[in-house]
Amino acid sequence: MARALGLGTCWMTSPLQDEATIRKVLDIPEKKEIIAVTPLG
Ligand SMILES: Cc1cc2nc3c(=O)[nH]c(=O)nc-3n(C[C@H](O)[C@H](O)[C@H](O)COP(=O)(O)O)c2cc1C
Question: Could you tell me the residue range of the domain that residue 34 belongs to?
Fold first, then answer.
């Protein structure tokens, strides 16, 4: 879908080294497990 919209994306796990910041910025509750980040742009 991203490509169809002229955007790029990829699977990323290294940003989870700072999981606390990811949770804070994206407002993800502790009860949710984050398995990856998919940037879009
Ligand atoms: C489980 C998983 C985790 C990944 N994590 C990262 C990451 O943290 N940073 C990164 O630059 N690429 C990461 N990649 C690789 C990218 O998702 C992507 O496959 C790679 O950049 C090659 O892209 P391309 O096929 O468009 O050249 C990860 C791939 C997998 C399968």
Answer: 1-41
Looking at this protein, which amino acid is placed at residue 26?
L
pLDDT in tens, 13-40: 999 999 999 999 999 999 999 999 999 9
What is the reported pTM?
Answer: 0.84
Q: Which residues line ligand 1 (CB under 6 A)?
A: 10-14
User: Ligand 1, residues 3, 7, 9, 12: which to mutate, most atoms within 8 A of Cβ?
Assistant: 12
Q: Provide the domain count of the chain.
A: 1
Q: What is the largest CA-CA distance in the chain?
A: 34
